[in-house]
Design brief:
By secondary structure, the chain is an alpha/beta fold. 40% of the residues lie in helices and 21% in strands.
């Protein structure tokens, strides 16, 4: 039996997945904080404990994500584009595209029929449309980030958010609040703005259905609904969207 591990060190969270013969045994998601190396080791140790596996019994460890070079116990590193493609295809063999919306970046990956990465586009220079963007908007609205999806569903018509820049969008939100615009309408407008931005990336890379959505923002039903309406297609959502990159890393470790 081959036991492998994948560590995905992201800007906000660090995820570890333990896999045996291609099946997930355990996973752990921890805040990355200011020490990515320590977060990676903690996530790995905790996932090993959950799986009842000793470190010496793991055949291979692969690290991915922006902080992958900080994982000194990994056997090698692999890009997050490759890992998200592998993880999404393992969960959804029919997937043709992956939309990953994380804490600080957004990426769209177009897959070939055999699962290889054909093309991708990545927004990593600006927080627009990411988890950080939603955090800033939630703070401006004095609302809980986790409740935004549910609140947006109560809206009959989203408020128009014209800017995709986090700073300018925050100013728009504050202005809408001062005008008395309903909070749920503003939140729906925020989700629609994210959907529009991601849709533009999807078009540029010529991604096609079936789409898998991954990353922490995939848990936000309002964002998913906005994207589905723009795409006129349902999204495939993993049970735990945040671990897809780490799962792909563990799969890559099994193939290495």
């Amino acid at each position: 039996m081959k036991i492998t591990a994948g560590i995905d060190v992201g800007s906000l969270t660090t995820d570890a997945v333990i896999v045996r013969d291609g099946k997930i045994l355990s996973f752990r998601i921890l805040p990355t904080g200011s020490n990515p190396s320590a977060a990676a080791l903690s996530a790995y140790n905790e996932s090993l404990k959950l799986a009842g596996i000793k470190m010496e019994n793991v055949n291979s460890v692969i690290a991915t994500g922006y902080g992958r070079d900080c994982v000194d116990f990994a056997n090698r590193t692999v890009t997050e584009i490759t890992c998200h493609a592998l993880g999404a295809r393992r969960l959804f063999p029919q997937a043709a595209s992956v939309i990953d919306i994380g804490g600080q970046d957004c990426k769209v990956i177009r897959l070939a029929a055999d699962g290889r990465v054909e093309d991708f586009i990545m927004n990593d220079k600006c927080a627009a449309g990411t988890g950080r963007f939603l955090e800033v908007m939630a703070d401006a609205l004095e609302t809980n980030l986790e409740s935004m999806g549910e609140l947006s569903e109560k809206s009959k018509e989203g408020a128009r958010i014209t800017s995709t820049c986090t700073v300018f969008a925050e100013s728009e939100v504050i202005s809408l609040v001062s005008k008395g615009t309903a909070k749920e309408d503003i939140i729906r407008g925020i989700h629609e703005a994210i959907g529009e931005r991601v849709y533009g990336m999807i078009r540029r890379v010529r991604a096609e259905a079936p789409y898998v959505i991954t990353g922490g923002v995939a848990k936000n039903k309002g964002v998913r609904t906005a994207l589905e309406m723009r795409l006129n297609s349902p999204l495939l959502v993993p049970d735990e969207p945040q671990i897809v990159g780490a799962l792909g890393a563990a799969i890559a470790a099994g193939e290495w």
